[in-house]
Structures are given as structure tokens and as C-alpha cells.
Design goal:
The chain is mainly α. It has six helices and no strands. The longest helix has about 50 residues. The protein is elongated.
């Protein structure tokens, strides 16, 4: 019984992903939604990014909600600690070390200088990751669409549903 429910859930998820990729949203909308999600997720929002996702999904009908929320899987809380460490290192490289702070002695008075370095590095990394994720997501979706169309065209050609051959030519072309 549990396995059947899991299979049904997976089948529904797969069908929803397929519909999302091929019918409801363009490849650019899907890639843009994922990229926006990556950008928001990488920022140090302390969980409020999910609220931003809900608001954006509610405000804009062309946002692919599945792609938007999929970014949370990629940049989950475990991964974000590495992002924060890299962001702080990048911010420190650009702005220099925080005056009077060593790894063994950090005081609350250094907080604003540390946050500035963290946010600067984080915004730079978020922009870079969003650009890379847009390109990657667009390629994945267009490849999926091509593969799906190729299967549909091959099946249609074999079955002869619209008078086309498997190579896409019609009887008038011969």
C-alpha cells in the first residue's frame, strides 16, 4: 500500500514536471524562474526567501513555480554554509580584512564590517550563480523538449497519425 502511494506520487510529480517543461512554460520562463530562485536562495535571507518565492509566484503567473522552488533543493541549508564562507572570503578579498579582527578574537563591534563583506561577496556569487543556472536550466529544458518532440514525432510517424513519415516528410513530399 505504501509503495503504491509512493509510485502514484512519483508518477504525479513526473507528469507535473513534464507538463511544466513542455506545455505550460517556455524554456526561457523555466530557466528564468530557476535562475531567480537561485539568486534569492543564495542571499542571506535567513529563510525569508521562501516567503519571497510565494509572493513572486502569486504576483506573476509566468513564473514556473516548480523551477523556482527547485532552487531550494540545490542551495539547501547544508550547502549555504559553504556559500557564506566563500562569500565572506570574497568580500574580504575585495574590501580587505576587518580592522582589529583576527580568527581568534572577534567582537560584536566588528559585526557591521563582517556583514558588509559577507553581503558583498554573497551578492556577487548570487549573480554569477544565477547566470550560470539560467544557462544550465535553459539547456536542460530545451534538450528535454527536443527529446520529447523527437519521441512524439517518431511515434506519430510510425502510427501515421498526421500523414507524416518517421523522417517528418509527408506523402506529398515524395
Amino acid at each position: 500500500m505504501i509503495l503504491r502511494r509512493v509510485r502514484e506520487l512519483l508518477a504525479r510529480a513526473k507528469a507535473e514536471l513534464h507538463r511544466s517543461f513542455t506545455e505550460e512554460y517556455s524554456s526561457r520562463e523555466t530557466a528564468g524562474s530557476f535562475s531567480l530562485g537561485v539568486f534569492i536562495t543564495m542571499l542571506p535571507t535567513l529563510g525569508t526567501g521562501l516567503i519571497a518565492f510565494v509572493v513572486l509566484a502569486w504576483l506573476f503567473s509566468r513564473i514556473n513555480r516548480i523551477a523556482l522552488f527547485a532552487s531550494v533543493i540545490v542551495f539547501n541549508p547544508v550547502v549555504k554554509w559553504g556559500v557564506y564562507g566563500t562569500s565572506f572570503a570574497l568580500g574580504t578579498t575585495i574590501l580587505g580584512p576587518v580592522p582589529g579582527v583576527t580568527p581568534s578574537s572577534v567582537s560584536l563591534s566588528a559585526g557591521p564590517a563582517i556583514v558588509v563583506r559577507l553581503v558583498l561577496g554573497n551578492v556577487i556569487l548570487a549573480v554569477l550563480a544565477a547566470a550560470v543556472s539560467y544557462i544550465a536550466a535553459h539547456r536542460v529544458v530545451t534538450t528535454y523538449e527536443r527529446r520529447d518532440r523527437g519521441v512524439v514525432d517518431a511515434v506519430t510517424g510510425v502510427v501515421g497519425g498526421d500523414d507524416t513519415d518517421a523522417d517528418g516528410s509527408t506523402a506529398d513530399d515524395h
